[in-house]
Amino acid sequence: MNGPTLKQNVVINNPQGFHLRPMGAFAQLASRFESSVRVSREGQTVNGKSILDLMLLAAVQGTELMVEVTGPDAEDALPALVRLLNAPPEEETTASSV
Amino acid sequence: MEIKRGIAVSPGVAIGPALVLDTEWFRIPQRTIPRNQVEGECHRLSMALAQAAAETRVNEEAVTAKLGPQYGAIFGAHALMLTDPTLVQEIESLIRNENFAVEYAVSRTMRRYAKALESIEGGYLAERVADLFDIEKRILRHLLGLRREQLRDLSEPVVVLSHDLSPSETAELDPRRVHAFVTEAGGRASHTAIVAGVLDIPAVVGVGPFLTDVSGGDVLVVDGHHGLLIINPDEETLERYKHVRATFRSQESKLHELRHLPAQTRDGSRVALLGNIEFPQESTPCLERGAEGVGLYRTEFLYLGKQSHPSEEEHLQAYLTVLRTMESHRPVVIRTLDLGADKFLPLGVGAESGAWRTAPERNPFLGLRSVRLCLRNLTLFKTQMRAILRASAFGDVRIMFPMISTLLELRQCKMILAEVKEDLEEEGIAFNPRLPVGTMIEVPSAALLAELLAREVDFFSIGTNDLIQYTLAADRNNETVSTLYSPGDPAVLRLIEGVVRAAAKYNVTVNVCGEMSGDPLYTMLLLGLGIRQLSVTPHSIPTIKRVVRSATVEESVKVAQEAMRLETARDVNNYLREQTRRILPSAFD
Fold it and tell me: pLDDT tens, B131-178?
């Protein structure tokens, strides 16, 4: 794919880990960009546009993930995706299982 | 070709494509496809995924509105999984590279993900495995059969396969589009069997696990005479069954010729043959087969598969449909709501109003069902009574209360009916003030107290299915004890004899409904015991009429007397078979 490859490391701060809702939001946001999005954890790399793949990363609180974006809109995509990963947990303390 | 054996409950032969109603217990077999079907399978996959995702989006909205966005998000995530690019890629590559059938490819992929999630340390996503199975089921449901909601508008006739058919599922079926039923569970008197009989289509029940061996669209032969299901028959078998089907149809049409002949014994006694119906549309086939009216109109379908209780108007419209077919001179006996136990309401119906107790009962057959349920939900009961009374202005309508077990219950029902009449009178709405009132005799206590009940009603209808199961304490749907369940049991015969005697004393008509009345084996016995009115599934009318026309009251009385002396159900049944064959050798063909 044409375009630059940009990457950034992010540490998961959510006490519940990188769980279903943010994963869904991440995959959805990633899919909006033309660039390919890969997410790695300790050498394991998955497609960032796939919620199922993201689940397999099993990123609990404190896990360091690397987000790698390649493509024409990589410069927009990377900061947006990182911002989402760093966002504070939503006001959902009552729905802890999700 | 594969042959499965079950219990034959409704005769006939059907040939058609499979529609699998039930994927809840599915284990998908590993099945490969020819190369030229690869594109077709991939297309089925994308259709199923798109439909499943759309359905999930609808759930998301509904759940969000009801419980809030945190819960709706679960379905949002499901929808994302259903459109997940790596998921689609993986399933497609299994189809393209391994030539797996799409169902198997889906199942294998979802299970790989589930396994991967389970193996993650700390179990932090272990509960997500349930989500994956849920998604798998949803996709399979779209692949293996039409969605339940689409059952009412099937485009081509199918053979319906299911673990067990629930009444609400059958209520949703379009009878013109169903060739046959085959179920894994169920016995001779299961709901499936009754419905198949009413719809006059072949059915085989109690086959045992077979759903994993069939895929939606497979060609099936259902042999309702011998209780066989043949999956993907070979050319020879198919031809043979086409022939059998044609022969059966011509026999049927011979029976049809009886239609205009009276149900009269050789010595001149008339027997009223009425039909049992469940759906208003069935009144037409009922008449076509020569019924003199409707002896049992089950009204449960009005309540099933609905989000709310039927309105008075909905009741009335259904009743008027039947009355239009039956015209004003033919009796139509409407039985009030008989739900409970084996006919569970769909989850949540009426839960908000607190009208139904939905907690599971330990002993539902002995629990809050039928008229007991109505007497605790007077609004619902009165709504139906109003509709029945209003319908009575347009024809020979009669009301019947099911599952009466004490005299007090009957009196309560009649009191409520009187109140409803008063209301209608005040409102100036027309009804038949002398609407005949009857009670079902289907609980042994009612049979034993028939003399007391007879003084307070216009007619009895013996509901043999429940009467037998309550008398012998044997669940008719439980295959392990169903041999105890026999209409020929001496205990049952004694109860019937007593009811007829009590009714004669007070000049009350006795009808027999239930499977027993539609079985030619018992026709002579019932005649001999003094029964002159039988209400049967429409397809049995010609068969029973033929036996009636071959018998005389005189010999039937002798047969009944002899049968009453026998000590076991087996002896009774053997004797009756012998006697019936004597007067009509082809009675059981």
Answer: 787 788 888 878 876 444 445 555 678 888 887 776 556 655 666 788
CB B280 within 8 A of CB B271: no
Q: Identify the residue among A50, A57, A92 best suited for mutation to test binding to B, counting B beta carbons within 10 A and taking the highest.
A: A50
For residue B86, list chain A residues with Cβ-Cβ distance below 8 A. 46-47, 50, 52-53
Instruction: Give me the residue label for tokens 């894994």.
Output: B184
Domain A5-86 grouped into CATH 3.40.50.2300: no
- Chain A residue numbers with beta carbons less than 8 Å from the beta carbon of B87 are 50, 52
* Number of domain units in chain B: 3
Cβ–Cβ under 8 Å, residues B464 and B516:
yes
Domain that holds residue B10: 2-21+148-251
CA dist B179 and B199 (Å) reads 10
In sequence order, the β-bridge partners of residue A66 are A9, A40
Chain A residues 41-80 with CB within 8 Å of chain B: 46-47, 49-53, 55-56, 58, 60
- Give the integer Cα–Cα distance in Å for B538 and A29: 61
Same domain, yes or no, for B339 and B425?
yes
Consecutive H or E run containing B329: none
Q: Is the pLDDT of residue B344 over 50?
A: no
Q: Of B49, B82, B125, which to mutate for an interface test with A (greatest number of A Cβ within 10 Å)?
A: B125
Hey, are the CB atoms on B80 and A24 less than 8 Å from each other? yes
B470 shares a domain with B415: yes
In this prediction, residue B296 carries a pLDDT of 97
Stated pTM of the model: 0.60
Which of A22-36, B67-81, B86-100, B565-579 has the lowest average pLDDT?
Answer: B67-81
Query: What would the two tokens of residue B488 be?
Result: 């020929």
CA distance B244 to A93: 67
Which among B191, B309, B315, B539 is annotated as catalytic?
Answer: B191
DSSP assignment string, B333-391: EEEP---BTTBPPPTTTTTTTT-S--SPPSSGGGSS-HHHHHHT-HHHHHHHHHHHHHH
Per-residue pLDDT tens for B374-415?
999 899 999 999 999 999 999 999 999 999 999 999 999 999
Indicate if B191 belongs to the active site: yes
What is the rounded CA–CA span in Å between residue B589 and residue B577?
12
User: Would residue B116 count as lying in a domain?
Assistant: yes
Is B261 inside any structural domain?
no
Q: Of B114, B144, B174, at which residue does a domain stop?
A: B144
Of B77, B113, B121, the CB nearest to A20: B77
Residue of B76, B85, B124 with shortest CB distance to A47: B85
